[in-house]
Amino acid sequence: MEDVRVYGDVHGLPQKDFEEIEMELPFTKIVYKDTVLNVDYEGHYIDIDDFLDELVKRLPASGWAKVDFIDHVDWQLTRHEIIDGKLTSRIVNVDAVLEPTKNEAGQR
User: Fold this and answer.
1) What confidence category does residue 93 fall into, taking pLDDT thresholds of 50, 70 and 90?
2) Residue 84: CA count within 13 A, CB half-sphere
3) Contact call for residues 43 and 50 (beta carbons, < 8 A)
4) Which pTM does this prediction carry?
5) How many helices (H) and strands (E) does the chain have?
6) Cα dihedral value 83, 51, 15, 66, nearest 10
7) Tell me, what CATH number does 23's domain have?
């Protein structure tokens, strides 16, 4: 099992701003299309604080982001959200997030 999993969506990030930060992004999967950035990473611990700080500076007022950081070692999920130019981070019960979907795997 990997140490962490990080995934999230950023809505409203201008193309110019994405291009300026693209090479610094710590994620293994990065998809950017139509001002929406999707990020995903699974592996050893990474620091995403600089990434979140850049988003706060670069997102327009109408933009928003939600990035989940799952620590598999401590079994803890931290949800980072940017709304109205403000970053909030809170601990979320991992089981409450993952439990409702565990029996849906493979179903249509």
Assistant:
1) confident
2) 1
3) no
4) 0.86
5) 3, 6
6) -40
7) 3.30.70
Residue with tokens 């999230």: 8
The encoded tokens of residue 48 equal 């995403």
N-to-C CA span, the chain: 27
Domain with 49, as residue range(s), is 4-97
Q: Is the dihedral of CA 65, 60, 26, 50 positive or negative?
A: negative
CA angle 60, 63, 66 (to 5 degrees): 135
For the chain, the average pLDDT equals 91
Identify which of 60, 58, 42 has the alpha carbon closest to the alpha carbon of residue 50: 58
Residue type, 74: D
The total of structural domains in the chain comes to 1
3-class DSSP assignment, residue 16: helix
